[in-house]
Design a protein that fits this description.
Elements lengths: L5 H14 L4 H8 L3 H8 L7 H10 L9 H6 L6 H10 L3
């Protein structure tokens, strides 16, 4: 899955949180942050603390991949980020 912007990352976090049946306050408690922080990251605020972002990804089981761009293009995997973002904009889980 390719994440190109903070808004893309926020959409992925929101999608996974909802799939796990967690509210924003529940996720905030698990990662040691405020609910407002979760709201901000899900809205794509670009100044989120990296440590909390990484803790959030780990808590939600979202893996970061360090493959080269060429390797990623040859073997895409996972859901399409554009579909996730489009669904989030329409307000669908």
């Amino acid at each position: 899955m390719l994440i190109r912007t903070p808004a893309d990352l926020g959409a992925v976090i929101r999608d996974r949180r909802k799939r796990f049946g967690l509210g924003q306050a529940d996720l905030a408690k698990k990662i040691g942050a405020s609910r407002q922080w979760v709201v901000g990251i899900e809205r794509g605020h670009s100044r989120a603390e990296l440590g909390l972002v990484l803790r959030t990804l780990d808590t939600l089981g979202i893996r970061l991949d360090t493959r080269d761009k060429d390797a990623t293009a040859k073997s895409p995997s996972g859901p399409d980020i554009d579909a996730i973002v489009a669904a989030a904009r329409k307000g669908r889980p």
